[in-house]
Amino acid sequence: MEAIDPWWAPRWPITWQRSYATARSWWLESEVRVDRATVPLAAEFEGEALGRWVQAQWARFAGLDQEQQDLLSALGVEEDQELAAVRAKVAARPGRSRGDRFAAGLAALAASSPSTSTRRCLAR
Q1: Full-model pTM
Q2: Mind giving me the DSSP string for 34-103?
Q3: From its phi and psi, is residue 16 left (phi > 0), alpha (psi between -120 and 50) or beta?
Protein backbone atom coordinates (compact mmCIF):
# COMPACT_ATOMS: atom_id res chain seq x y z
CA MET A 1 0.00 0.00 0.00
CA GLU A 2 2.82 2.42 0.81
CA ALA A 3 4.12 2.15 -2.77
CA ILE A 4 0.69 3.05 -4.20
CA ASP A 5 -0.20 5.79 -1.73
CA PRO A 6 2.13 6.76 1.12
CA TRP A 7 -0.80 8.51 2.84
CA TRP A 8 -3.24 5.57 2.77
CA ALA A 9 -3.28 5.42 6.59
CA PRO A 10 -2.31 8.87 7.93
CA ARG A 11 -2.05 9.72 11.63
CA TRP A 12 -4.50 12.60 11.14
CA PRO A 13 -8.26 12.41 10.48
CA ILE A 14 -9.33 10.98 7.14
CA THR A 15 -11.56 14.03 6.65
CA TRP A 16 -8.42 16.19 6.61
CA GLN A 17 -6.84 13.85 4.07
CA ARG A 18 -9.91 14.03 1.82
CA SER A 19 -9.94 17.82 1.95
CA TYR A 20 -6.23 17.89 1.20
CA ALA A 21 -6.80 15.61 -1.81
CA THR A 22 -9.45 18.05 -3.06
CA ALA A 23 -7.09 21.01 -2.60
CA ARG A 24 -4.34 19.09 -4.41
CA SER A 25 -6.69 18.28 -7.31
CA TRP A 26 -7.62 21.95 -7.58
CA TRP A 27 -3.94 22.89 -7.51
CA LEU A 28 -3.07 20.37 -10.24
CA GLU A 29 -5.90 21.60 -12.46
CA SER A 30 -5.27 25.31 -11.95
CA GLU A 31 -1.46 25.19 -11.94
CA VAL A 32 -1.23 28.11 -9.49
CA ARG A 33 -0.20 28.36 -5.89
CA VAL A 34 -2.91 27.91 -3.32
CA ASP A 35 -2.96 31.34 -1.70
CA ARG A 36 -5.47 33.83 -0.38
CA ALA A 37 -5.65 35.63 -3.72
CA THR A 38 -6.50 32.52 -5.74
CA VAL A 39 -8.67 30.73 -3.19
CA PRO A 40 -11.22 33.13 -1.67
CA LEU A 41 -13.15 32.05 1.40
CA ALA A 42 -16.26 31.18 -0.65
CA ALA A 43 -14.35 29.03 -3.19
CA GLU A 44 -15.72 25.56 -3.80
CA PHE A 45 -14.24 22.70 -5.80
CA GLU A 46 -15.79 19.29 -6.45
CA GLY A 47 -18.52 20.11 -3.93
CA GLU A 48 -16.03 20.88 -1.14
CA ALA A 49 -15.73 24.21 0.65
CA LEU A 50 -12.12 24.57 -0.46
CA GLY A 51 -11.74 28.23 0.53
CA ARG A 52 -12.91 27.65 4.09
CA TRP A 53 -10.67 24.60 4.48
CA VAL A 54 -7.59 26.41 3.17
CA GLN A 55 -8.25 29.39 5.46
CA ALA A 56 -8.52 26.99 8.42
CA GLN A 57 -5.17 25.41 7.52
CA TRP A 58 -3.46 28.81 7.52
CA ALA A 59 -4.92 29.54 10.94
CA ARG A 60 -3.85 26.26 12.54
CA PHE A 61 -0.71 25.53 10.53
CA ALA A 62 1.59 25.48 13.58
CA GLY A 63 -0.57 22.85 15.27
CA LEU A 64 -0.53 20.44 12.34
CA ASP A 65 1.70 17.39 12.08
CA GLN A 66 5.01 18.12 10.31
CA GLU A 67 4.00 15.84 7.44
CA GLN A 68 0.73 17.74 7.04
CA GLN A 69 2.67 21.00 6.96
CA ASP A 70 4.95 19.55 4.28
CA LEU A 71 1.97 18.46 2.16
CA LEU A 72 0.40 21.91 2.44
CA SER A 73 3.68 23.69 1.73
CA ALA A 74 4.00 21.78 -1.54
CA LEU A 75 0.70 23.38 -2.60
CA GLY A 76 1.75 26.84 -1.47
CA VAL A 77 -0.08 26.91 1.85
CA GLU A 78 2.39 28.25 4.39
CA GLU A 79 2.02 29.41 7.96
CA ASP A 80 0.35 32.82 8.37
CA GLN A 81 3.32 34.95 9.45
CA GLU A 82 1.19 37.62 11.16
CA LEU A 83 -0.66 34.99 13.18
CA ALA A 84 2.62 33.24 14.02
CA ALA A 85 4.07 36.52 15.31
CA VAL A 86 1.05 37.11 17.54
CA ARG A 87 1.25 33.55 18.90
CA ALA A 88 4.97 33.96 19.60
CA LYS A 89 4.31 37.23 21.44
CA VAL A 90 1.62 35.60 23.59
CA ALA A 91 3.83 32.60 24.31
CA ALA A 92 6.71 34.88 25.37
CA ARG A 93 4.64 36.56 28.08
CA PRO A 94 5.49 35.31 31.53
CA GLY A 95 2.82 32.96 32.74
CA ARG A 96 1.29 32.87 36.19
CA SER A 97 1.11 29.58 37.99
CA ARG A 98 -2.08 28.29 39.49
CA GLY A 99 -0.68 29.01 42.94
CA ASP A 100 0.11 32.61 41.96
CA ARG A 101 -3.43 33.12 40.69
CA PHE A 102 -4.85 31.60 43.90
CA ALA A 103 -2.66 33.86 46.08
CA ALA A 104 -3.78 36.91 44.08
CA GLY A 105 -7.40 35.89 44.63
CA LEU A 106 -6.86 35.54 48.37
CA ALA A 107 -5.18 38.95 48.51
CA ALA A 108 -8.11 40.52 46.63
CA LEU A 109 -10.56 38.83 48.98
CA ALA A 110 -8.66 40.04 52.04
CA ALA A 111 -8.56 43.57 50.66
CA SER A 112 -12.29 43.62 49.99
CA SER A 113 -13.58 41.99 53.18
CA PRO A 114 -14.69 44.34 55.95
CA SER A 115 -12.47 44.75 58.98
CA THR A 116 -13.36 43.17 62.33
CA SER A 117 -14.48 46.51 63.79
CA THR A 118 -16.74 47.13 60.79
CA ARG A 119 -18.32 43.70 61.21
CA ARG A 120 -19.01 44.42 64.91
CA CYS A 121 -20.73 47.68 64.02
CA LEU A 122 -22.87 45.98 61.40
CA ALA A 123 -23.85 43.22 63.81
CA ARG A 124 -25.42 45.68 66.28
Answers
A1: 0.62
A2: --TTTS-TT--BTTB-HHHHHHHHHHTGGGS-HHHHHHHHHHT----HHHHHHHHHHHHSPP--HHHHHH
A3: alpha
